């Protein structure tokens, strides 16, 4: 395990690990314990009572955060003809077909999200080996395989985030930057929290949200008590 830095150890002293805080208190603590010299990302982490090995308990999707993430996503759209023109008009950073497939095969990755029209997926599928491990493969569940390229590009630019349960039943989602006003981080948190409740698989048994925490890029995790939050919403 990596040795913790002096700054991290000092920051961690401000957090009582035996306490689950209200979301407002947790976000305040995340800001206090942030010692990064850059505008760190604030992230929420869920530990869920699901078995991701079972098809009916896999959780994946996307949601638009009301205040975005503080990062402008570079969007690549695979489309032809009118749909390509539509993507350009919507503000996609890169639009094309075979030319961009070749570029990616040669190691080009100057983008953050890929959108593809369904008729392009046969070609885009050839990039599965390189896009899959990076989590960049377009997927209908996250709204990135669609003929409505205008909506897809607009949502991504407005602050759409993807979420996906990992093998350890965890989901990590960015909810903004430490420079955000606390109220905006709380509202973004509320959006992703409500989304997690809505996508609870019917097959999931027992406690659904087992652990909930917020953290900054380099700072310690701060536990959140979901019950204090649920009462307010």
UniProtKB/TrEMBL annotation:
It comes from the Bacteria. Belongs to the universal ribosomal protein uL1 family. PANTHER family: 54S RIBOSOMAL PROTEIN L1, MITOCHONDRIAL (PTHR36427), LARGE RIBOSOMAL SUBUNIT PROTEIN UL1M (PTHR36427:SF3). Gene3D superfamilies: 3.30.190.20, 3.40.50.790. The keyword Cell membrane does not apply. Part of the 50S ribosomal subunit. One of its GO terms (biological process) is translation. GO terms for molecular function: rRNA binding; structural constituent of ribosome; tRNA binding. This is Large ribosomal subunit protein uL1. Protein L1 is also a translational repressor protein, it controls the translation of the L11 operon by binding to its mRNA. Binds directly to 23S rRNA. The L1 stalk is quite mobile in the ribosome, and is involved in E site tRNA release. The keyword Ribosomal protein applies. One of its GO terms (cellular component) is large ribosomal subunit.
């Amino acid at each position: 395990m990596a040795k913790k830095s002096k700054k991290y150890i000092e920051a961690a002293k401000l957090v009582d690990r035996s306490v689950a805080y209200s979301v407002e208190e947790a976000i305040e603590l995340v800001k206090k314990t942030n010692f990064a010299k850059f505008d760190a990302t604030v992230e929420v982490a869920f530990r869920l009572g699901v078995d991701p090995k079972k098809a009916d308990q896999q959780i994946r999707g996307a949601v638009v955060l009301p205040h975005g993430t503080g990062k402008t996503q570079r969007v690549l759209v695979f489309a032809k003809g009118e749909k390509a023109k539509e993507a350009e008009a919507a503000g996609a950073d890169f639009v094309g077909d075979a030319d961009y497939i070749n570029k990616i095969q040669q190691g080009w990755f100057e983008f953050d999200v890929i959108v593809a029209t369904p008729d392009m997926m046969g070609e885009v599928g050839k990039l599965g080996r390189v896009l899959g491990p990076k989590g960049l493969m377009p997927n209908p569940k996250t709204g990135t395989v669609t003929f409505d390229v205008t909506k897809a590009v607009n949502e991504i630019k407005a602050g759409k985030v993807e979420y996906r349960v990992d093998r350890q039943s965890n989901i990590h989602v960015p909810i903004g930057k430490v420079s955000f006003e606390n109220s905006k981080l709380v509202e973004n948190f509320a959006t992703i929290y409500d989304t997690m409740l809505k996508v609870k698989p019917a097959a999931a048994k027992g406690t659904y949200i087992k652990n909930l925490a917020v953290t900054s890029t380099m700072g310690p995790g701060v536990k959140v008590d979901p019950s204090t939050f649920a009462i307010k919403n």
